[in-house]
Structures are given as structure tokens and as C-alpha cells.
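Exercise 7b. C-alpha cells:
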């Protein structure tokens, strides 16, 4: 599938995608990278990798770029806004969340906010969730989840480091599963489970 990467920062997840596609362990091709923040490191990396890279603010401007590049799947890779895709991609947006949904998710739960909340609550296990995104934060169908143990002495920074390492495995795995099974499989599974 032809994929777009939306980001807001350093592009660490883009690095992971680029490396895994090059190694043949992640399916798909990155057609375009878009950031809602100007001059971030992620855009520089995208250009260095040879991907078309753009700064665009607002869903309308982003969607025009995506439609111009005929993408089939949108990957939210540290994109820190609620994204509304064009109608043709409304079920084709994948996000990675740094916790095990439905815990520590929803509006306001992103990045270090999640890891601080995990530490404050004293949970023994956290993790990450790759899921389809819809109009509500962290509510779309889950594709892959993996656990990360939380030690007594782990700081929020330690938790963030360990969870990101797991995200680097989970996000490509989720993309490969979507390539294998198709987008409709995951949305249909959720609909079947509600019956």
C-alpha cells in the first residue's frame, strides 16, 4: 500500500519505518511525509531519505497533499493533533498510542503525560497499542497491542524509553497485518464483536 506519514517532531518513528522498509521487514511504500510543525527534524530526515516532505497546517491543506500523492494508508507517527482525513481515507488512518487502550487514553493522554500517569497510578504493566484512528481520540479498532513491564524504580523517562522500543516493533507489525488482512477486516471485527 502507498502510505503517508504525518508527524510533529523529530521523526524517530519515520526512522524506524525507513529502516524496516529498507530491510524488507515492513510492507508498503512511503509516498509523502507531512508535518503540521514547520522546520522540525522529522521533515529534514524525510528529505534526506528522499521522500516528498511538506509542512501543512489544518486538515484541508494536509488532505490536499495526501490526495495529490494517491496514498492508501495514513500513519500518525507522533502527530499531535486530532486528524480528520478526506472521505476516501476515513477508515485508513493508523495511530500508535503509548499505553494499553482503554487505559491511559483519550484527550490529553499523549507522550510524557501518559508515562507520568502510568507512574503515578503505580501500574505493573503498560505498553502500546496500534489502532485505527477515528474522530475520537484512541477509539478506533485495535490492530496490535504489546505489554511492557513497569519496575518499582522506573521513572517516567524509563517507561517512555521502554515503551518506545516496543512501539518500534508494534507499529510495523500492525502495518504488515493491515497489508495482509485488509482495512475492512479490523473494522468488521469490531462491528461483529458488538453484535
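Sequence design result:
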Amino acid at each position: 500500500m502507498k502510505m503517508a506519514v504525518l508527524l510533529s517532531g523529530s521523526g524517530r518513528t519515520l526512522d524506524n519505518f525507513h529502516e524496516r522498509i529498507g530491510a524488507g521487514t515492513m510492507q508498503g511504500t512511503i509516498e509523502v511525509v507531512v508535518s503540521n510543525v514547520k522546520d522540525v527534524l522529522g521533515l529534514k530526515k524525510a528529505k534526506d531519505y528522499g521522500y516528498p516532505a511538506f509542512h501543512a497546517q489544518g486538515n484541508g491543506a494536509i488532505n490536499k497533499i495526501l490526495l495529490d500523492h494517491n496514498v492508501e494508508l495514513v500513519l500518525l507517527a507522533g502527530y499531535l493533533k486530532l486528524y480528520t482525513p478526506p472521505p476516501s481515507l476515513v477508515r485508513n488512518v493508523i495511530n500508535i498510542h503509548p499505553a494499553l487502550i482503554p487505559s491511559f487514553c483519550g484527550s490529553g493522554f499523549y507522550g510524557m503525560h501518559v508515562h507520568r500517569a502510568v507512574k503515578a497510578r503505580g501500574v505493573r504493566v503498560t505498553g502500546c497499542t496500534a489502532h485505527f484512528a477515528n474522530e475520537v481520540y484512541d477509539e478506533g479498532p485495535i490492530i496490535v497491542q504489546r505489554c511492557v513491564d513497569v519496575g518499582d524504580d522506573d521513572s517516567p523517562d524509563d517507561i517512555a524509553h521502554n515503551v518506545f522500543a516496543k512501539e518500534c516493533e508494534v507499529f510495523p507489525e500492525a502495518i504488515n497485518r493491515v497489508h495482509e488482512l485488509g482495512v475492512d477486516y479490523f473494522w468488521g471485527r469490531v462491528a461483529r464483536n458488538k453484535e
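Instructor comment: The two ends are 30 Å apart (CA to CA). The chain is about 40% helix and 20% strand.
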